[in-house]
Design brief:
By secondary structure, the chain is mostly helical. 71% of the residues lie in helices and 0% in strands. The relative contact order is 0.07.
């Protein structure tokens, strides 16, 4: 998103995005760490809401099920 806001046109956005991706650690932080931390934070917030009874306890369970990889739920 930063490349889109900082560039004047589509070609400039591609060049800027390549420069950003070339920085070591950006791919890990943005594509691996960011979504993982978001998922953990989402679960933590729902658990907190369940503890103070703002949502039903089953909501935490449903969020946890949503975070599990789909392949681990298959029965063969």
């Amino acid at each position: 998103m930063a490349a889109g806001f900082l560039s004047a046109d589509h070609a400039g956005m591609g060049v800027l995005a390549d420069q950003i991706q070339a920085v070591p650690g950006v791919s890990i932080a943005v594509h691996d760490g960011g979504p993982f931390l978001f998922s953990i934070g989402q679960l933590a917030l729902v658990v907190q809401l369940a503890v103070v009874r703002r949502v039903k306890a089953r909501t935490s369970f449903l969020v946890l099920l949503d975070l599990l990889p789909r392949s681990s739920l298959r029965c063969r």
